[in-house]
Structure to design on (732 residues):
């Protein structure tokens, strides 16, 4: 039965890709509207594709260098599995492909959303959301297809180890390498795209809206096209690559933990079931996410809460159905503790929904925290910034508590209430992470919907479609700000659970690394333990992973520092790029006569080029540091230092990411709340103050914050891939 059920995994992935094509084809059949609307959409599309082409050139060089390094380690020194270099490249390729296809859809959908909004609010919502669903379905479809392909390939060609259970461990740990490829690509996409979009956005807002007092997305603003391009390269291509690696990372880490949990028992049948269980849960999630996607609709004149409710209906329906179906699938699979593992799926979804609801409360203009930030605009930009930072800090409490409860609950459920069974407990935590991301098909649809709606509003403004159409696109855009913040909350929450699972997977890679250098036994304080029989607790004692070990403490401090160092580098990168954009927009207003009167057209291409060059230059150092630090930590401090590093980065990175994402989202929607006519409306001093707050928040929520969840997992993935080197040699 288990082997029969496995084929549901590639079948579900192909179903997702088929529906992605269906929604894309439906969207393409609709009209882009007027000639002016089509022209603007073409300019945005051209700029986005040009940027991606340049980014992939840079990333391609990095990938070739890393693949060569892994090849030397695998074929020259026998420190890695021979499949690792190839798996790494395929992970990066599919992550980039997911982002590319999502952006191709988004750039085609924005004008069509604006055109549909000329007729009705529901028409605009339908096109934007289903176009966003293309991204969601492409990510989950390609992810599961890649995972199932690699499982079948490795199962056929990896030779039998000492035992059949050892073979499954080797397969799952090798598959984690393709997760590193996905994480590396995702980090470059997020950082580069984030720098691009925020440089353009800051330039457009500070000079256009504050200094020149012209509306957002006004065609007289030279940075407008670059801003719209940025929404696609950062919030679509970057986000697609980001969540692709989150999705694959959670499944692969959990599969590896499932293999480890049953390795010592010798029960190959149950081990196989534990390995494919997270894949099957994800497959069920795909099918039922489709049900939720078709359930999303609204009515004309809907308010923000109505629009949020429309999306919530689809998401919550999928979540409930997935929980029910997960119990059924795990029962049919014959997993020995199937109902407890089903409960861990429910726990993961509950944690995700809790984080999403908390994010909505702290970032939506429908609730008091964001409204108070808007009110602070009456006393100036300083109080707006202070209150936004305060809201962001307060917003960390609920997600952290939710994750803590989720960790403990899923651990105890998987072990039957025993704290001593670490292997099964960690497997339960991994399954909870898979549960949280099982609705990714629809949650990513709500996330990708945001930049499509934003671009639709820009197109409507630049095309002069009138106040009624702009009112509808503004409503869709405001909804998108909240859904984007909620999507980032899901990604960050899953990073916490997945990071913990990857931490445990690292120990399994250490076991394989020890085996490669000929170690068959561990001497733990005079007690000899066979390597294949060693537990997590045995490895912790062998490497002296305690708070009293200075190597662990050193690693923890470096890990905590990495979160802040990375944010500092990316924030400064946005600042430098934005300064160039501000200077360029001011130059054009000064030297090109007739821009502000509408008699001359700005040089849009110059602004697009500035953002592209800045992003390409600035994304390299932060991304390479994220790869280099785990390697250097392992070389200097060994296994215990790496474990400390991962713990430090996970704890600090998670809290900092929540703070930055929510503070940025609250500032953005505080501005939207005033633009709806509150506290003086557009053009007022309060409005200008909230624009400054939004400008500060832009790199918070769209560059540094969302990049942190990738940083957490990438450092784990790098550590896993380089475990062979760390085990074989370190200075201390």
């Amino acid at each position: 039965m288990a082997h029969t059920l496995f084929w549901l995994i590639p079948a579900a992935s192909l179903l997702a890709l088929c529906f992605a094509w269906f929604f894309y084809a439906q969207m393409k059949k609709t009209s882009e509207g007027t000639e002016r609307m089509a022209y603007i959409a073409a300019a945005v599309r051209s700029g986005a594709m040009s940027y991606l082409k340049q980014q992939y050139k840079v990333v391609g060089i990095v990938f070739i260098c890393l693949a060569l390094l892994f090849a030397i380690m695998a074929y020259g020194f026998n420190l890695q599995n021979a499949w690792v270099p190839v798996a790494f490249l395929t992970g990066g390729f599919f992550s980039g492909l997911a982002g590319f296809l999502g952006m191709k859809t988004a750039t085609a959908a924005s004008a069509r959303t604006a055109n549909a909004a000329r007729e009705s609010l529901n028409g605009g919502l339908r096109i934007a959301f289903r176009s966003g669903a293309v991204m969601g379905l492409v990510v989950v479809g390609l992810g599961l297809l890649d995972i199932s392909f690699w499982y079948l390939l490795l199962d056929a060609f990896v030779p039998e180890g000492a035992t059949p259970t050892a073979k499954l461990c080797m397969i799952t740990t090798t598959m984690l390498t393709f997760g590193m490829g996905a994480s590396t690509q995702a980090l470059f996409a997020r950082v580069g795209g984030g720098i691009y979009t925020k440089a353009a956005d800051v330039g457009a807002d500070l000079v256009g809206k504050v200094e020149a007092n012209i509306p957002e997305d006004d065609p007289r603003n030279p940075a407008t096209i670059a801003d719209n391009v940025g929404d696609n390269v950062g919030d679509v291509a970057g986000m697609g690559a980001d969540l692709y690696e989150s999705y694959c990372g959670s499944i692969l880490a959990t599969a590896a933990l499932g293999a480890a949990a049953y390795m010592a028992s010798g029960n190959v049948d149950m081990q196989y079931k534990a390995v494919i269980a997270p894949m099957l849960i994800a497959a069920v999630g795909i099918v039922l996410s489709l049900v939720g996607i078709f359930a999303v609709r609204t009515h004309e004149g809907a308010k923000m809460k109505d629009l949020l409710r429309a999306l919530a209906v689809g998401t919550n329906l999928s979540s409930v159905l997935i929980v029910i179906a997960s119990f059924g699938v795990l029962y049919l699979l014959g997993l020995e503790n199937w109902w407890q593992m089903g409960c861990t799926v429910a726990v993961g979804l509950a944690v995700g929904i809790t984080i999403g609801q908390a994010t909505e409360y702290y970032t939506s203009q429908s609730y008091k925290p964001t409204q108070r930030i808007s009110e602070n605009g009456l006393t100036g930009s300083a109080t707006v910034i202070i209150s936004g930072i305060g809201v962001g800090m307060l917003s960390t409490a609920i997600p952290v508590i939710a994750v803590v409860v989720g960790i403990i609950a899923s651990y105890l459920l998987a072990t039957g209430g025993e704290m001593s069974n670490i292997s099964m407990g960690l497997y339960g935590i991994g399954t909870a992470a898979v549960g949280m991301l099982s609705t990714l098909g629809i949650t990513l649809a709500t996330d990708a919907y945001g930049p499509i709606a934003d671009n639709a509003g820009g197109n409507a403004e630049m095309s002069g479609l009138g106040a009624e159409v702009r009112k509808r696109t503004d409503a869709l855009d405001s909804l998108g700000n909240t859904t984007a913040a909620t999507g980032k909350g899901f990604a960050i929450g899953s990073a916490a659970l997945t990071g913990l699972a990857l931490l445990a997977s690292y120990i399994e890679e250490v076991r394989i690394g020890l085996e490669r250098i000929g170690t068959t036994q561990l001497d733990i304080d005079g007690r000899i333990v066979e390597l294949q029989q060693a537990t997590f607790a045995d490895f912790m004692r062998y490497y002296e992973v305690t708070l009293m070990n200075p190597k662990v403490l050193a690693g923890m401090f470096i890990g905590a520092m990495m979160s802040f160092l990375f944010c500092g580098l990316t924030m400064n990168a946005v600042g430098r790029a934005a300064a160039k954009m501000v200077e360029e927009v001011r130059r054009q207003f000064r030297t090109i006569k007739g821009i502000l009167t509408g008699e001359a057209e700005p040089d849009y291409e110059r602004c697009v080029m500035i953002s592209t060059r800045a992003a390409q230059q600035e994304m390299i150092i932060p991304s390479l540091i994220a790869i280099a630090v785990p390697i250097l930590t392992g070389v200097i401090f060994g296994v215990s230092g790496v474990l400390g590093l991962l713990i430090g980065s996970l704890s600090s990175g998670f809290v900092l990411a929540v703070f930055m994402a929510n503070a940025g989202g609250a500032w953005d929607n505080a501005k939207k709340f005033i633009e709806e006519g509150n506290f003086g409306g557009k053009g007022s001093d309060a409005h200008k103050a909230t624009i400054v707050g939004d400008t500060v928040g832009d790199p918070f929520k769209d560059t540094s914050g969302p990049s942190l969840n990738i940083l957490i997992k990438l450092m784990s993935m790098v550590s896993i891939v380089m475990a062979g080197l760390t085990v074989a040699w370190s200075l201390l």
